[in-house]
Amino acid sequence: MDKIKTIHIITEQTRFKILQLLSEHHYCVRAISKKLNISESAVSQHMSILKKHNVVYGEKIGYQMHYKVNSQLLINLISDSLEYIKQFNIDIKIPVDCSCEFSDECIRNNISNKGDKQNE
């Protein structure tokens, strides 16, 4: 499977929203359709693409097919992508988000402090 193609498939806006829903709970096409306010046929077309690339899989519950995310595939995809990026010696730093009531000020202060240090 082509990893770049899979990344392209999962980052399409509607499919990404579907994956967000399915990461929280398994749903059938009808439920996904109602939650995203799009037609069942549109959901079915997106699900067909996601299934074709093994991003999701179905499990029949009663009369409905419920879909779940193939989380191992996504974990492997992200892990492989990070390994690939490491070869470029890019320093990836995840910013620490301030969750206090002054978060805007904290973020602005951190940015201006970095700028001050660069000017020294």
UniProtKB/TrEMBL annotation:
CDD domains: HTH_ARSR. Residues 1-89 form the HTH arsR-type domain. It holds the Pfam family HTH_5. It comes from the Bacteria. The keyword Transcription applies. Gene3D superfamilies: Winged helix-like DNA-binding domain superfamily/Winged helix DNA-binding domain. InterPro entries: ArsR-like_HTH, HTH_ArsR_DNA-bd_dom, HTH_MetalResp_TranReg, WH-like_DNA-bd_sf, WH_DNA-bd_sf. GO terms for molecular function: DNA binding; DNA-binding transcription factor activity. Keywords: DNA-binding, Transcription, Transcription regulation. NCBIfam families: HTH_metalloreg (NF033788). This is DNA-binding transcriptional regulator, ArsR family. It comes from Asaccharospora irregularis DSM 2635.
